[in-house]
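User: Structure please.
Assistant: Input sequence and predicted structure:
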Amino acid sequence: MNRHWIKKPSFSIFIGFIFLFFFNPLLWAANSSSFFQFSTINALLEGVYKGELTIQKLLQKGQIGLGTFDALDGEMVIIDGRCFRVNSQGMVEEVTADETTPFAAIAQEPSSNSRNLFLIDSYEELELELNKMIENPNLIYIIHIEADFQTLKARSVHRQTKPYPPLTEVTPDQAIFEFTEMSGDLVGFWCPQYFEGICVPGYHFHFIDKDLKHGGHLLDCSFLLGSVRVSPCYDVFMQLPRNQEFARANLAGKRIDEIQQVEK
């Protein structure tokens, strides 16, 4: 019998496995998350703060995310499938399932292996390091960072009353908190520029400390060592509000300057 013929099947199986592993899109998707968002950032800019989607239904879509609550009542942090409010005093409380949100984004926990982040001096430097991990700039990414923060600057907003002002009139009166030597988590997303008007383009993070007592919308931070997990989102889902406030809102036009004003 030809000994070379005997070896061919095992070699073919090996090549087939390599091809399947590296070129099968289904295996790529195994390292991805699905992304769900309720409403749009332009609607929030317009003052559409009426909560509609319940937290119970929101948490059916994922385990990690961010947003806000009815009447813009604080910053939302979702972690480990639990939803927390950071109020205008910077304090954290877990919310009930029947509370509602006018805007939120949520995904599955990133499935990738964690990577280390070293000597981060500012939010800008953090963005530069994360940019190296955004392999496809046309996808949304879910990002989870854990670190012992040397410094961290965050904000929350005050609950609003009707008639609701646009978000650009709310943030000048925001409450700002500065923390030092605090361990915690940053949860957030990176969204491509072409999602402008729907999502916040670029990076958007909310913070919560390990004791679940303090948090807010991230403005700045520094740390010596942290870990990050990042996953692309190939499946993107959106649900829009059914209320009259959303129906009457003017959502047209590019508003990147307003987004930068309220998010940074």
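The radius of gyration is 21 Å.
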